[in-house]
Amino acid sequence: MANAERITLTEDHLDVLIGNLHKDGYRVIAPRLEGGAIGLDEIRSVKDLPRGWNDEHGPGTYVLKRDAGEALFASAVGPGSMKRFLFPPEVRLWKATRDGSRFEIHPESHHRSPKFAFLGVRPCDVHALAVQDAVLQKGRFVDADYVRRRKDCLIVAVNCTSASANCFCTSMKTGPKATMGFDLAFTEILDGDRHVFVMETGSEQGRAIIKDVPHEAATDADCQLAEAAVQETARRMRKQLSTDGIRELLQRRFDDRRWDQTAERCLACANCTMVCPTCFCMNVEDATDVSGAVAERWRRWDSCFTQGHTYLHGGSVRFSGKGRYRQWMTHKLSYWIDQFGVSGCVGCGRCITWCPVGIDITEEARALRDNDRNTSTSNQGSV
């Protein structure tokens, strides 16, 4: 990145950074061990980070392991992402109160949003944030609550020095190294007794914040160690999703038999959409109290997997599990590109990990491509 400054921080220096962010009024959100998983939550110091913890992912499986030594950022991605803070599961849009014959509306947009500093977020999630920006902040229909929460965000990304079995960010060109969208980005290095963080500045805001943190200029040796660790992570990534012509492929295979086969397994539980860092489906609900003196409007997460999501007068547009799964995957990898110019998938692998029956989007895409290739070959042979 042009004008990027590379420095080295120790663990104590990282603690100073966290403390300074709190003094500046930020809520510092970082990986934290809670509820049997490593997710994003508020921290006060380095002590709150998941030292020594790693996580093992598989289709429908997530296992925590304490085998990462002194590493603070050894885990991959948990079930939560920045979406939970910037596009929360439940938001009150406004509240109206009645005083006699007079109503007064109190919009939530008048309330000040907290300043978020996201520390240790993965490059795939930084790309997911850019996708949500395109949908909720730069699209035709701007979400005022999202804009308010997103305004003062600070992004401190961590480059991946390990990958889970479900990661495929290299296929989506979203990792394992942060290349955009961050104020600061670092690589954690454990080299013998040395435990340091090789950090790169990515914005003027990042440069201003790091000035008040003790640090040293990064040596060539440290930069090479950091780069080698990231390159090794990319080399070890086994899962792939071919994106060549994926938009057109999914539109061609709308009636593919694979959708029926997948629907036999899919529970339509909506886990994949709840953990996805880019999904934004929501519903708006109105409620009043018994007396009729208070009315509220709430925005709540919804999913294209719920039968009521596409309900119109007379019934649901997509009444089958097959139709709902096909809608999710086709929108994610195809129609999303038509709408917003980018893919709706960043290769984080959460949908694979948190699917109870282990449906793998990379395997589904591969099966559709194989069927498409076989159909093409068969047609050529019949000419």
For the structure shown, list the relevant keywords.
single chain; 383 residues; alpha+beta; 8-stranded mixed beta sheet; 4-stranded antiparallel beta sheet; 13 helices; 16 strands; 34% helix; globular
Structure description:
This protein is an alpha+beta fold and 383 residues long. It is 34% helix and 25% strand. It has 13 helices and 16 strands. It has an eight-stranded mixed sheet with strand order 3-2-8-9-10-11-1-12, sandwiched between helices. Strand 9 (154-158), helix 5 and strand 10 (184-191) form a beta-alpha-beta unit. Helix 8 (246-252) runs antiparallel to helix 11 (321-340) and helix 8 packs across helix 13 (361-382). The chain starts with 5 loop residues before the first strand and ends with a helix.
End-to-end Cα distance, whole Å, is 53 Å
**Poorly predicted ranges (pLDDT <50, ≥5 residues)?**
none
Task: Average the pLDDT over all residues and give the rounded result.
Answer: 92
Main sheet, how many strands, which sense, barrel? 8 strands, mixed
Structural class: alpha+beta
Work out the number of β strands: 16
Count of helical regions: 13
Side-by-side strand order of the widest sheet? 3-2-8-9-10-11-1-12
What integer value in Å does the Rg equal? 23 Å
Estimated helix fraction: 25-40%
Anisotropy-based shape = globular
Percentage of residues in DSSP E strands:
15-25%
Order of helices and strands: EHEEEEHEEEHHEHEEHEHHHHEEEEHHH
